[in-house]
Queue: 2 jobs
Job 1
Amino acid sequence: MAKPIAKLRYDEISEGDEGPTVSHELTRSDLVAYAGVSGDMNPMHTDEVSAKAAGLPSVFGHGMFSMGLLARALTDWAGVGNLTEYRVRFTKQTWPGEVLTTRIVVTGKEQTEDGKRIRVEVGLANQDGESKLAGSATIVAC
Amino acid sequence: MGLERDEVVGMPTGAATIHIERGPVSRFAKGVTDSSPVYQSTEAAREAGFDSIPAPPTFTFAAAHWGTYPEDQPEDPTGGRGNPIRKLMSELMAEGGLVLHGEQEFLYHKPVQIGDTLHQEGKIVDLYSKEAKGKTMTFLVMETVYRDDAGDPVVTERFNLIHRK
């Protein structure tokens, strides 16, 4: 029976602590690759001609690519398999050329019947600080 | 608003039997920029506490695109009518406006690993409207549960679409 190894030590984490950030410049190749691995073939993400015909400045990013990028920042820090909840609001579209940076801030911790848990607020923003995702997650700690 | 909450909430959106396979999982991880060896190597996955390579946190959202084969699909809960979300959204879009993926939530009950078979069932769980900045926002919330062969929940997703006009 799988038992993912938790990386965060409950006693060493305090409210206000921040997790490491991940930065990534979004490219059109990312959008094509994500369309392929997810099966989301909406042309607004991959076909510049269609996107411009629809009145958009260019193709734009899949919200679920952004959520996946932010998930990577969480699991890099907490260890794969150590999320119990993860939710986001998609606040703005993402565009090729933007540099997206993740943010993880500890908002609380608690000892539950199921074990030690750390609550975090999470976000993703571009180089100008414009929010793309805002959400929260719960992490298993040891 | 043209849609009645009582008629919509509880509507099934679909069901599928999904096999979790190594190629799709490993490529999906790379597709969200995640180069962790845990998603590529069985040995690294075991060292991280798994029985086999696990799926990244958002994989289930795309899982039905992969590993869904005709020989073991469940009976279609929509009775062949297909996912009602598309029809409901086109009814709203007939009045103009824009449809956006507003929110996404995952609840993780157990790890998803390659070799697993997941049984997916979705339904509409909420419909409501709000007025904001002179616009009407209609929210349609769908819940999808993935269960293992024993019927225990593995992942629950909530997907929230917004029609803004």
Note: The mean pLDDT of chain A is 97.
Job 2
Amino acid sequence: MRIRINGDTHEVDVDVRTSLLDLLREHLGLTGSKKGCDHGQCGACTVLINGRRINSCLTLAVMHDDDEIVTIEGLGSPAALHPLQAAFVRHDGFQCGYCTPGQICSAVGMLDEVAKGWPSLVSEPGTDAVALTDEEIRERMSGNLCRCSAYPNIVDAIRDVAGAGA
Amino acid sequence: MKTFDYRRADSPAAAVGAAAAARTRYIAGGTNLLDLMKLQIETPERLVDINRLDLHDVEDVADGGLRIGALVPNSDLAAHPAVRERYPLLSSALLAGASGQLRNKATTGGNLLQRTRCYYFYDTATRCNKRDPGSGCSAREGVNRILAVLGTSDQCIASHPSDMAVAMRALEATIVTLTPAGATRRLAIGELYRLPGDTPHIETVLEPGELITHVELPPPPPGRQLYRKVRDRASYAFALVSVAGAVAVEAGEIRAARLAFGGIGTMPWRDPAVEAALIGQAPGRPAFEAAADALLRDARGHGSNDFKLPLARRTLVACLAELTRETGR
């Protein structure tokens, strides 16, 4: 199959059982996306498919030819960090760092959802312009767990970038 | 994970044709199916990938209703202007479920068919009549905090996990399918699900290979709408109790009421007696308590889920107060 990841096209031959996460990590050496629970409960494996954030552990690689996948490796580089990567460093938005690539990919997808006016459970009904309060950030990021509980600083980092982009 | 034959369908007819083989499952979002396949609770011999079928649209229907393609993702449906404006309880229910990542993948059809999150269904070292018919039920005597108090049987007390399906029960959705014989079938959502009885492994009336193509909503019910979910943490948890409600009050009297419940039933729950207890009554504690009495008349706890009876009562009363509150106060 052919799959596009971070702008590169890869020709790969995979067992049908291979999750997208395992393809990234085990076949392509893109180990930025992390395997936490492998059951869609922790968010460490979050990547962007055609711009939408999803759990890469809960989808099969074979279902994604033609799709455009972006992982943490595709967002920024050590020399040129993505604004969210820089904000996580600035705000100390991690301790062990294992959940961080998933947090950042999720936040990228989440901010795009906010830009589209998508509501969350805590949004004021009937409004299209989402005010990205801390409550909104926490609700929208609830699919990304941090066992070190760096949540306050993660929220600070995301709020910082969202404010700058608004 | 057991291996399987992977097929991709490009039309509903082709999908149904490919699903004629034994032990076939359709895969759309895959967020529940792959989870269960990793644990070998689901062991299909063939997966038919239906993501390329043309079932991704939400369309207005002439009568004022809505026709939703089975592949519309939960997040898109929750954000759809028609859903937010005319069916806000459905938008709320969708947003109360799972996480942003899962809602981006999970589909309308798949959400309806997701399996229970009963701990014992998931733990293959325990007995479960749903996972392994005839093996028994470890949940009845076990930790059953999240499990059902209505619609249970001696064989199974598993709760249905969906929020969306509860909302759709209150909205009287119709499930449209393509049968293996090629016919279109229409089922009221209440007819889709089966009570566990002696066959808890059979959860719906769908035939093997029958494909959900659309969900149709009739015009929205009159009155105010609400979806309230009570759970163990503020976000990203299944319901202990949830209420989907639409209630209309006119001239100091409840004229119309639709109420459906999650977390407490073995299927998305709706009971006409609850609504009958409200119609024609003045909004207030006596009518709300009578509705709760009707809801819980056959409810039975199993130890660690006994708390769901008072919790369901209080949640229903609180929701009815909110739904019938005079505006401007």
Note: The mean pLDDT of chain B is 97.
